[in-house]
Amino acid sequence: MNIYRNILFFIVLLLLVNSNLIGQKFELTADKTTVKQNERFQVYFTFEGGEGSNLKGFSPPNFKNFKILSGPNQSSSIRMINGNVSSTITYSYIVIAPNIGKFTIESGSTQYKGKKYKSNTLTLNVGKSSGKATSKSSSQSMSDEELKENVFIRAIANKKNVVQGEQVSVTYKLYTKLNISSPQITKLPRYKGFWAEELETSNNIRFEVEMYKGVRYKSAVLKKVALFPTKTGKLTVTPFELEIPVLVKKKRQSNDPFDSFFNDSFFGRTETIQFKATSNTVVINSSGLPKKGKPESFAGAVGQFDFKTKLDKNDVETDEAVTLRLTVSGKGNIELIDMPDVVLPPGFEKYDPKTSKNVVNKGTVSGHKGSEYLIVPRVAGIKEIEPIKFSFYNPKSKKYIELTSPKYTLNVKQGSRIATTAGDGFSKEDIKLLSQDIRFIKTSNFGIEKIKEGSLIKNWFWYSLIAPLFIMFGIIGVKKRQDKLSGNIELMKFRKAEKKANNRLKLAKKALDENDLPTYFNEVSQGLYGYLEDKLALQKSEFSIEKVIELLQKNNVKEDTTGEVKDILNLCEFARFAPQSQTLEQAGNLYETAIHVIVEIENSVKTKKKK
Q1: Cα dihedral 323→324→330→336 (10° resolution)
Q2: Same domain for 219 and 348?
Q3: Domain range spanning residue 253?
Q4: Per-residue pLDDT reduced to its tens digit, 295-354
Q5: pTM of the model
Q6: How do strand 184-187 and strand 241-249 relate by DSSP bridges?
Q7: In a domain, 452, yes or no
Q8: Structural domain includes residue 483
Q9: Band (411; pLDDT cuts 50, 70, 90)
Q10: Nearest CA-CA partner of 339 in 387, 376, 301
Q11: How far apart are the C-alpha atoms of 26 and 117, rounded to whole Å?
C-alpha cells in the first residue's frame, strides 16, 4: 500500500512541476537601444506563457520624451510545450525621440488571471542626427536614407582568405523592417576570377526574425553560391542589385481631421516606393598553393577526396575486353578535377574512357567523378598494371595527400583466334589431277565474233573507279573540320549552341506540360544562359546581363530582341524564388519568347571571327 501511495505522490509531484515549467514573463524591448534624433524605431511589450484569453488590461507607459507614430499594434503566437498551450502576446509601437540625450521608457503593466505583471524599464541613448541632406520629395513619406537603413542586402562570405581552388560560400540575404512586395533583379553579381556553382536554396523567399548590429530585422536568403578561385591575388565579387517595391504609410496631404482619421494604419492607406537595394562588394584574398611537398601526380584538386579503382576480372583471354574503373569522391570542386591517366604495359589496346559525375550543391559542393576504361589484351602472358596515383591539397590540414591504387595482375591466356603462318599450303587431298594436263593447240574454227566498240568496258567500271576518290576527299574534309573544331573549343561551342539550347527547351516544355513550374523556369534559364555563353564566347565567371546586351549589340542583334533577352533572364531569376507568382499562361508565353529570341540571334550572329 505504501508503494502505491509513493507512486501516486510522485505522479502528482510531476504534474505540479510540469504545470509550473511554463512561467509567465512580461518584458519591454526595442529593436535598437541607440538611435538618432527623430529616427524611427520600434518598442515591444511581450507577455509569454499561459493562455492569451486570460490576459487583460494592458496599460502602456506615458512615453515621456518620445513621440508615438503608430501603436499599440497587437500580435500573438501559440505553441505547445509538453501538451500545455502557451501564448505570446506582443504590443508594439513605432516611436521617435525628438530630443538628444539619455531617456527611459517606463514600465508597462498587464493582468493575467487577476495577477498584475509589470515590465522592466528601458533606457535609450539618442544621438545627434547626421545632418546629411536626404532626397525626400513633398509626396514621399520616407527619405532615401531611411529606406537604406530599413531595407538592404548583405553579401556574406564564410571566409576571406583562401588558397587557389578552395571553396568560398557567399550568401546573399535581404534585410527589411518594412513591408515589401515582389523584388525584381536589376543586376546579378559577377564572379571574375572564380569558378561559380549555384548552391541549393528554397524556391520561395522565407523571412525570419534576425538581430543584426543590435537591431531586429526580418531577413531572408536570396541566393547562395560556391566560388572556387581560379587564380591568385585579390579577387572581387561585384554587388547584387534588386528593385524592391516598399510599402510605407501614406503621408498626410492636409490638416483635414477626416484625412487624419482615415490615414490611420487600420484603414491601410499606404503608398509604394520603388527602392534599389545594392549589396556590398565581397573581396577574397586567394593565395597560391605551396610548392613544398607537392607530388608529381598533383593536377590541381583542392578539397577532401577519396580515390578508388576496380578491375572487373583478372583471368582473361586475348582479345577479351576488361573494364577498369576509377572513382574520385569527396568535397571540393568536382567539376574541375582531372582524372588520372592509366598507363598500360605493352600488348594492350586502350580505348577513350567513359566519364561520369554527380555533383551535390548543398552547402559544401561534393559528389563523385569517374572514368571507365575499356582495355583489350592482345598478347598472352602475365601482365601487370602499375599502381595509379591521385593527389590533392587539403586546405584544412594544409597538406598534400597522395592516394595510390593497388597493382593489378592479369593472367592473359591465348584465345581461340590464332593467326595463320605464311608457309601454310594445301594438302594432297586438296589437289585433283586432271585426266589431260596438256592439250593441243587449236588452229581453226575459233567461233570468234567482233565486239562492238565501247562495250568492253562498262559504265559501272568507271563509276567504281571514280567513286572511291570522292569518298576519300569527303572523309578528308570531314576529318579536317573535326580537327578544326577540336582545336577551337569556342568555334565548336558556337556551332553546337543552338542544338544544346533546343534540348533544354524540350525539357522545359515537358515540365510545363506537367505543371512543374520550378523545373520549367530552371530549364529555360539554363538553356538560354548556356546558349548565350557558347554563342557569345562568354566564360561563366564573366556572365552578366549587361555584358550579354553589349555583345548582342556588337553583333547587330535587333534592339527588341536584346530587350526580350533581358526580360527573360530577369523573369527566370525571379521565378526561381517565387514560381507560384507566375501563371501557366505567363510561363507558356515565356517559352514562345525564348524560342523566338534564339531564332533571331541565330539569324543575326551567322559568322564568328576565327582566332
Answers
A1: -100
A2: no
A3: 144-287
A4: 999 999 999 999 999 999 999 998 899 999 999 999 998 888 899 989 899 988 888 899
A5: 0.52
A6: antiparallel
A7: no
A8: no
A9: very high
A10: 301
A11: 6
Place of cell 524611427: 40
Listed residue (130, 127, 106, 109) closest to 118, CA to CA: 109
C-beta atoms surrounding 575 within 10 Å: 23
* One domain, residues 395 and 509: no
Q: Which three cell numbers stand for residue 566?
A: 533581358
Best CA proximity match to 158, nearest among 111, 214, 224: 224
Contact yes or no for 105/121 (Cβ under 8 A): yes
Q: Last residue of a domain, which of 413, 432, 455?
A: 413
What total of structural domains would you count in the chain? 4
Residue 434 placed within a domain: no
> Using one digit for the tens of pLDDT, what is the confidence trace for 357-406?
898 888 889 999 999 999 999 999 999 999 999 999 999 999 999 999 99
CATH no. for residue 195?
Answer: 2.60.40
Above 50 in pLDDT, residue 15? no
- In this structure, the number of other CB atoms found within 10 A of the CB of residue 300 comes to 15
Question: How far is residue 547's CA from residue 549's CA, in Å, rounded to a whole number?
Answer: 6
| Rounded Cα gap, residues 221 and 237, in angstroms | 18
Query: 96 with 38: CB under 8 angstroms?
Result: yes
CATH assignment at residue 549: 1.20.120
User: Are 159 and 283 contained in the same domain?
Assistant: yes
**Same domain membership, residue 179 and residue 148:** yes
Q: Please tell me whether residues 281 and 169 are part of one structural domain.
A: yes
Per-residue exposure over 104-130, b if at least 16 CB sit within 10 Å of its own CB, e if not? ebebbebebeeeebebeebebebeeee
Tell me, yes or no, whether 536 and 579 share the same domain: yes
**Residues 6 or more apart in contact with residue 29 via CB below 8 angstroms:** 43, 44, 46, 122
Grid cell in block for residue 456: 568492253
- The β-bridge relationship of strands 55-59 and 67-81 is unpaired
Residues 326 and 392 in one domain: yes
Residue 471 lies in a domain: no
> CA–CA separation, 81 vs 175, rounded Å?
31
* ∠ Cα 369 375 377 (to 5°): 160
Q: Tell me the one-letter amino acid at 351.
A: Y
**Contact yes or no for 371/325 (Cβ under 8 A):** yes
| 92 neighbors 75 (Cβ within 8 angstroms) | yes
Asked if residues 89 and 46 have their Cβ atoms less than 8 Å apart, the reply is yes
Q: How many beta carbons lie within 10 A of that of residue 487, not counting itself?
A: 9
User: Which regions of 405-478 does DSSP assign to beta strands (E)?
Assistant: 408-413
Alpha-helical segments (H) within 138-205: 144-150
- Of 413, 441, 476, which marks where a domain is finished? 413
Same domain (yes/no): 311, 375: yes
Q: Which three cell numbers stand for residue 142?
A: 520616407
